[in-house]
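haha ok so turns out i had the wrong file open the whole time. this is the CORRECT one, sorry everyone. sequence first:
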Amino acid sequence: MFLAASLFTQALLALSITGSPVEVRNSPITLPLTRRLNLFNRTINLQHDKARVAAPKGRNTHDRRAGISIPVKSSCLDYTVAVNIGSPPTTYNLVVDSGTSITWVGASGTEYVKTATSVKTSWPVQVEYGTDDARSSFSGIIYHDTVSLGDELTVTNFQLGVASISSGFNPHEEGVLGIGPRDLSTGTMPLAMDDTIPTITDYLHDQGKINQHIVGIFFQPVDADPNSQLGKLTFGGTDSTNHVSGITYTPITSRPFSAQFWGINQRITYGQRPILDFTAGVVDTGTTFLYLASDAFERYQAATGATRNQAAGLLTITLSQYRDLVNLDFHIDDQIFGLTPDAQIWPRSLNTKISGGVVGVIYLIVDNLGMPSNGEYDFILGYTFIQRFYTVLDGSRSLVGFAKTQFTEATTNHVLWN
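then structure:
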């Protein structure tokens, strides 16, 4: 097995890099993503999303498996990619998750089909996600197998988790494609607690399929067809067709806990009103909402005039208050990434997919992290943020990048689709 070693060296870069130093230089390969409406779990229980963001609190930094991880029932939508495993291959639809590094199959009773390329090891693996009633988990064995994300992205002897037991997953969730930092797998193998499992991006890079350890993420917001192919995942570089501005890069934060993930530094304002001073937090495709430290959340609530809806567990505003909303601005290095009023609300067409949600109500997507600022992490940018900004995870240079897309200022969330 592999010794524990971080891919990220915490380079001390004082300035962001804006422009196209990463663009298409590696002949990157782009894969389509499917955004699936969760018809099997028809309502969101906000508790599951909160369990995901609360799990790291108070944990020993060695026990990273309890941190930000798989999007288990956190939303009625998730983004999956078709992954072929074995020879002849079996196709699995795996949830894309930047908050975990392990790729595995076998969720919800999905059968792992063994072929001539499947080699069973003696290494058990187990992961728990969330806390208390919202806990989900899988346990199984590590296999080596051939894994393909497309004709040009095939790797051999990939270390793949195969679940023998799993709980808390929806029927259409067949496993996870982990694109988080490799060290997140520390502590997941009971016989080798200090070892790590290489990620799919590690294998692609080490076997010469891509030249740079880079993943570009494009998520399109909800429209009238929530089951359409509305996302792309790019390995080895970025896709210029998915963004309309230059990419602003910022270093992985040096704050120890957040640095284990795709963590960055930023400050947040609501118009001219300070919400959160310069601090560290995490970018995570597997979290639904946008979470702020409790004091910052209270400032945002006061600024918007929102009230908490107890049934849904989210902030709500009136139509008049919606019209008065201003941008929620994220100051990342010398650039501002503003969530428009439309981007700050949950898609109204999906209100009934929220547990306790009511048609016509306007719910905000900003929620309380549950701990004060100046902690281990003071914000989490979930996929409702990533839907508005092209996101780049650059492991080669220990950077995270953001750019505006054609949907940054879209007004689809406020529309009630027929």
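Helices lie at 46-54, 200-206, 256-259, 294-304, 319-324, 383-386.
again sry for the mixup
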